[in-house]
Amino acid sequence: MYADPRKIKKNEVKVRLDDDVNDLLEALVKNTGGQKAVIVRDIFMRGLKESVSFGSKERTAA
Asked: Can you tell which superkingdom this protein's organism belongs to (predicted)?
């Protein structure tokens, strides 16, 4: 089914959000019509990629 079995999303992470952050997320879900978990994963991946690239920029600048 998958060309690369490593791309199967089988690992879970539990995240606890306060009410304000959850309300923002719910508004985003309502406005986009997307699924909550997919939106959170996309936001997380963008932040993770930015953090990794920022860290590599710091190492090369030093």
From this structure: Bacteria
Tokens 């309300």 found at: 23
| Residue 6 located in a structural domain | no
Could you give the CA distance from residue 2 to residue 10 in angstroms, rounded to a whole number?
Answer: 13
- Report the distance separating Cα 21 and Cα 18, nearest Å: 6
Provide the domain limits for residue 44: 32-62
pLDDT digits (tens, 9 = 90+) for 18-58: 999 999 999 999 999 999 999 999 999 999 999 998 777 76
End-to-end CA distance of the chain: 45
Cα-based angle 47, 37, 8 (whole degrees, multiple of 5): 85
Q: What amino acid occupies position 18?
A: D
